[in-house]
Amino acid sequence: MPVRKSLETSMNFYEVLDKKYKRLSGFTAQYNLSIYEFHLLLVIYKSKTIQLREVIKNELMKVNQANKAVKNLYEKKLINKVRLPMDERTVELSIKEDSLPKVEKMIKEFAHEVEELQVEELVEVKQES
Predict the structure, then answer these.
(1) Cβ contacts of 51 within 8 Å, gap of 6 or more
(2) pLDDT at position 121, please?
(3) Three-class SS of residue 60?
(4) Rounded (5°) CA angle 129-2-15
(5) I need a surface site. Which of 27, 101, 110, 121 has the fewest CB within 10 A?
């Protein structure tokens, strides 16, 4: 592949990535959350309860990002954070019962945003063809 074509392919990739990032940032800003906080909220909701060390180990989130996200979600009263009695270093996370409807609403709205973005991308691809 010639360098010019490679450059064009690379630039197109970053344009699409930037568009998705801006859309995600706009969505999370509506709820005063960071991207990492929203990602962690999705992970916790999916698991019902999960240990923080599992999030760090399995969910591709750096330790400082996960710790900061946990702190902020806990302060916003969206999650429970419980230290397990058998091991004080182990923290278990879950969605607060009273914030469950709000979290589910966010997830549905985000899924709608993703679907809209996918439709826009399909339209753009068809226009380019």
Answers:
(1) 90, 91, 92, 93
(2) 77
(3) coil
(4) 50
(5) 101
pLDDT reading at 61 higher than 90: no
Displacement of CA 63 from its chain's centroid (Å): 15
Pairing mode of beta strands 87-95, 49-51: antiparallel
Tokens 């709820």 locate to: 31
Looking at residue 120, its amino acid is E
| 90 touches 82 (CB < 8 A) | no
The answer to whether 48 touches 61, Cβ cutoff 8 Å, is no
Give the chain's domain count: 1
User: Tell me, what amino acid is at 52?
Assistant: L
Structural domain range at position 24:
3-128
**3-class secondary structure, 30:** helix
The three-class DSSP label of residue 89 is strand
Phi, psi of 77 (to 5 degrees): 60, 35
Q: In the chain, what percentage of residues exceed pLDDT 90?
A: 43
Q: Classify each residue of 86-107 as buried b or exposed e, where b means 16 or more C-beta atoms within 10 Å of its C-beta.
A: eeeeebebbbbeebeeebeebe
